[in-house]
Each structure stands twice: as structure tokens, then as C-alpha cells.
Amino acid sequence: MQTNPQLAVADNDVRHDWQTAEAQALFELPFMDLIHRAQTLHREHFPANEVQMSNLLSVKTGGCPEDCGYCPQSAHHHANVAAEKLLPVDTVLAEARQAKDGGATRFCMGAAWRNPKDRDVDAICEMVSGVKELGMETCATLGMLTDDQAKRLKGAGLDYYNHNIDTSENFYGEIITTRTFEDRLDTLGTVREAGIKVCAGGIVGMGEARTDRADMLVTLANLTPHPESVPINLLVPVDGTPLADAPDLDALEFVRTIAVAKIMMPDSVVRLSAGREEMSDELQALCLLAGASSVFVGPKLLTTGNPGRDHDDALFDRLGVTGTQGS
Q: 276, 257, 273, 266: which is closest to 54 by C-alpha?
């Protein structure tokens, strides 16, 4: 397929009118040209060689009524993840202190809910306030929210709310049937209306086509404003889930996805999220070169593994990368 040169060199200004053909044209650029463009844009919007370290804790694990095909916490699947109650506030704050001592500047709290009950939000607000008092950025991912719940979280000091769109609208029904694509966009609107910054990205490697990856990024890039935080996750296949045998995504295609996200949303923090445990150091370095400027540190991402902190420290030292205080 021939790339339209005019399409591939779109204006670098922040835009909200992207078309799928433009995103596809970016994906089809020669790899070196794509990475150069993404890194150049990154340096126009962020300091070079700085990466924010975040920590993600599952504060309520398993038993989720949603049927997301990638998720071992779904009650519909047979992964080896037991349902647990919401962690005590003191336990969560102890984890946050440990994360801060380890260099993390952002603490994210995830709960396996379709939507939280009001009494659950009481406890989450206590957690948010406590983490905020430690001087860390706060983020939560709790499922769908009501307007009042979002306002309460904002009042407690929540900086970011994570709610990924996961994939393209066209491919979405192949992955999830218990919640619509529009439900996800509505939740992002609720969060934005409450004055909370938006953390929204997706998962690649679920069997989607490149067009789906392009469409997903178009949906995110056409939100006004852009999500301040855009996590790009590589599927971690888990036994007992419908995607346990999903074919591996080409590593350079993953890097391309990060680079296109950076070009389309240059003032957003693109986050290298799930899947790092299986990535080589060289692949992670390419992801940072493509414009990723945040990683999750710590032993787990909710229920899946993550590289050890010693390994991360050694890698960042080899790359000349330093930590940053956040976005």
C-alpha cells in the first residue's frame, strides 16, 4: 500500500480532527522516520531522558461481573485469581509509602468492579486523601462512575481517573459484551466534567488489525482535550481467559503504536504499561525512544507480573534515564 506523503506529514499542532486514513499513514511510515518524528515531538513537549515511575495496586481483586476477554479478574473466566474484599485503608497507605520510598511519584489504585457502590467510594476517598498527603499523584480505576461519585473523588484529591477504551469501536464487541464502547466514553465524560484528569488508552495484541489500532488512537486523539495520560498496554495472555492463546504481536508494531500515539497526542504522557515483564531491554528502550515517558514499577500490575525494581534501575542507568516528579 502506497503512503500519501501529504497525509503522513500532518501538522504537528495539537489536533482533535484526526481521520483513520491519517493514523494509518503514520503507521506505514518507514520505521526510522516514524521514531524520529515521535521523539522530536516528545522533546518539544517534555524534557528529554525523564521517565515518571508509577505504582499500581489492586485494592479490590477478582470477582468482576464484566467479561473482558483479556482479564483474569472476570468472574466469567477460569483464571487462577480469587475474589477478595476491598483492602483496608491502612494497608493501601502502607503500600503507597513503600512505593514512594522506592522512587514512585504516582500511586494508582485499581478495583475489579463494574461500578463501585457509594459505600465503597467512602473508603476509596480515604485512600486518595491519604496518598495525596504523602505528596504523590493519585490515580484510580474503579469502573463506571456516577456524577456524584466522580465529584466526591475529585474532592478527596484524585488527580487522574483511568478508564481505557481498550480497542477500536469496531473490534470492541469481540473482546467485551457486558459494557458498551459508548459506556466507556460516557465514563470519560463524567470524569472530565468533575474536573479530574483523564487517563485513557488501550490494549494491543488481542488479535485486532492495524486498522483497529489506528481507530483506537483516533478516538482518543479526537477527545477534547486529549487524555492527559495514555497508557499503551501489550496483552499479557493469562491461562483461563479467552485470550490465553492470542498470537504474539510483532514487537516493532507495538513500538509503532506508541510512536503514533505520541504524534497524535504530543502533549499527553504516553505510558508504557502492561507487558513489560516479557519485553527485552532493547524493546523497552525503543518504546522510550518512540515517546513513552512513564512506566509502572513494582512487582505487579494488578494481578500480572512486572519487572523487578533492581532490573528497572539498572536499565534506566544504562539508558541515562532519570525519574521525574510527574505530569
A: 273
- Tell me the whole-structure pTM to 2 decimals: 0.87
199: annotated active-site residue = yes
How far is the C-alpha of 14 from the C-alpha of 305, rounded, in Å? Answer: 35
pLDDT averaged over the chain?
87
Catalytic residue among 37, 106, 125, 139: 139
> DSSP assignment, residue 48?
T
CA distance 51 to 172: 31
With beta carbons less than 8 A apart as the criterion, state whether 273 and 79 touch: no
pLDDT at 306: 55
287 in active site: no
Tens digit of each residue's pLDDT (9 = 90 or more) over 76-110: 777 767 668 889 999 999 999 988 887 788 899 99
How far, in Å, CA of 244 to CA of 11, rounded? 40
User: For 92-110, b where at least 16 C-beta lie within 10 A, e where not — what string?
Assistant: bbebbeebbeeebbbbbbb
Question: Does the pLDDT of residue 327 top 50, yes or no?
Answer: no
C-alpha 178/C-alpha 200 separation (Å) is 19
Annotated active-site residue 68? The verdict is: yes
- Which one of 37, 64, 152, 287 is the catalytic residue? 64
**What mean pLDDT is predicted for residues 12-19?**
85
28-42, 111-125, 308-322: the lowest-pLDDT one? 308-322
Select which of 37, 106, 199, 276 is catalytic.
199
Greatest Cα pair distance in the chain:
58
End-to-end CA distance of the chain, in Å? Answer: 38
Is 125 annotated as catalytic?
A: no
Share of the chain above pLDDT 70, in %: 90
CB atoms within 10 A of CB 2: 6
The single residue listed with the C-alpha cell 518524528 is 37
CA dist 186 and 203 (Å) reads: 19
